[in-house]
Write a structure and sequence with these properties.
mainly alpha; NMN_transpt_PnuC; Nicotinamide riboside transporter PnuC; cell membrane
Length: about 190
């Protein structure tokens, strides 16, 4: 465990908790967290994770913009459901992205675990996009992805990060419950 991992983990917990609460401060705090994790994963030679956190940095800015320019009475974007077409297209794009990124990482880099790293990266990007758009289904995908991340990081003996993703899984369950309630209350 490094100081970098400890700080990034603490900020990650705070950012996800604020996301569950639909507090737009989750985005700037998340921006700092993903920047620190990009550095951490670069040192670990998990290059798909570096790319993921680089894209997450852009997604943090996009999410912050989406959440603060929305049309609900509170000035933010309301929680909505993704259509079946949106879910299917998103899952297909993430699966294809997994294959493409895995192939790139396996052939063009010395990545430690190119295939699982790529798959988790691609599906995380989809979950992050749905979160920025306030689709309640983002939490279902986060529950699956975060659970798989726990196993991935335990295997590598990144105990603090595995614990963080375990906590993210719990927060994702809370987020699913709270966002669905928020959606039902707005109807």
């Amino acid at each position: 465990m490094t100081t970098l991992e400890l700080i990034a983990s603490a900020l990650g917990v705070l950012a996800v908790w604020l996301t569950v609460r639909q507090n737009s401060l989750c985005w700037p705090i998340g921006l700092v967290m993903v920047s620190l994790y990009a550095w951490f994963f670069f040192e670990a030679r998990l290059y798909s994770q570096v790319l993921l956190n680089g894209v997450f940095a852009a997604m943090q800015l996009y999410g912050w913009w989406q959440w603060t320019r929305g049309s609900s009475g509170e000035g933010g974007r309301p929680v909505v459901g993704a259509s079946a077409m949106e879910v299917g297209a998103g899952l297909l794009a993430a699966a294809l992205g997994s294959v493409a990124l895995g192939l790139l990482m396996a052939t063009a880099t010395e990545a430690a675990y190119p295939w699982p790293d790529a798959a988790l990266t691609a599906f995380s990007l989809l979950a992050q996009l749905w979160m920025a758009l306030k689709r309640w289904q983002c939490w279902v995908l986060w529950i699956v992805v975060d659970t798989l991340y726990v196993a991935f990081f335990v295997y590598q003996e990144y105990w603090l990060t595995a614990g963080l993703y375990g906590l993210f899984t719990v927060l994702a369950v809370m987020g699913l419950r709270e966002w669905r309630q928020s959606r039902l209350a707005a109807q």
